[in-house]
Amino acid sequence: MARSWLILSALVAGLALGAGWTRLGLGGISDAVALADSVGGVWLDGLRMTIVPLVVSLLITGIAKTADSARGDRVAMRSVVTFIALLWVSTAMAAVLVPALLGVFPMPTDAARSLAASLSVSAPVDAPTVGIAAFLRSIVPSNPVAAAANDALLPLILFTAVFAVALARLPAAQREPVTAFFDTIANAVLLIVGWVLALAPIGVLALAFGVGARAGTSAIGALAHYVVIVSSAGLAAWALAYPVAVFAGRVRLAAFAKAVAPAQAVALSTQSSLASLPPMLQAAADLGVQRSVARVSLPVAVAIFRVTSPAMNLAVAIYVAHWLGISLAPSAIAAGAAVAAITTIGSVSLPGQVSFLTSIAPICVAMGIPFEPLALLIAVEMIPDLVRTVGNVTMDVAATTAIARIGPARQAGEFATGEGEAAPRPAFATGAAGVLDLEGEKP
Length: 443
Known about the structure:
The protein has 443 residues and is an all-alpha fold. The chain has one domain: Proton glutamate symport protein, CATH 1.10.3860. It is 74% helix and 1% strand. The chain is built from 19 helices and two strands. Strand 1 and strand 2 form a beta hairpin. The longest helix is centred in the first third of the chain and has 31 residues. It starts with a helix and ends in a 19-residue tail after the last strand.
């Protein structure tokens, strides 16, 4: 959390310094802005170089761990299938909701124009603008290596996901050395990302200085607008939990709201799904969910399921396009939605700032959107992160009530607790970073 406040402070300081320098008419502003752009650009390039190896390695290890969680236990299998379905539903909701919100409540025209001009962005990759048939043909790579070299991330991600699923079906003796290899790559690249993020206050300060010098105080209002729009996507995914609990879980709305409230309070105060697990288990018990189901489903949910993430990550990418005045075709939004839903599996167990960049940058690339604005948006991620965590915790409990109604729990793969009831083997996946830190910075 200290680093988040430091980055936010760098953002505010950079905007204030740049706007103040311009307002006071001090000399040398053009040279100062050029230097700041260079410093910020080098920092962004340091992040950009990690995208392809990190996405590929995390997706392979993430799918492998998801398959391990589901293997050999019917409750775990039902949980994984339910979670994946809900991830796609929440992503589809965001794909419709966010463009509609931006149509009704757009960023002020003057602010959008000045902000777009204030960032030195790379030329966007050609976004998919073709018909549905040609778009579907384009997502299957004829050469995965060429797709990686050309930043064609959607075809690359599709190949990687299929490869990871095939890998998960191999015998352990063949599967584990390969997953260990990619886990090692992920660990090494995450170290590089950590080094780059350690310089985030400098990079954000430099980029914010240039934005403040060119756009002035309009940047502040635009960032507030961003927080509201992106948080709305998370709130929609959060709200989805209530009909899931009522109609699929067959619990009363008032009972569900009362039972989940303590877990929501812990999530709000800690920004950690893991810290919220004990009150989530209690909430499930209060709602009549069998312990043999809750003790499998909820740990799996904490480890691999973040219903708000693909919705909010897609919302960020769509917002950046709106910011830069890029018109998105339906095929481009579909490409971003697919990448958002798939890469969520690979981004588990990462600190908030790492997952923010590694999850959203591939979406931007797939949609043909420059991701330079992400360097500024990461500084205000703390507020949307609260919505992410509380929404995830709420849906975890709601999905568990639904899973408990699908069929009887199976005791295979469970071990006795000494309390007269079986409990599941822990299903947590620590991920490449070795830390179960799902939304915020608290493990």
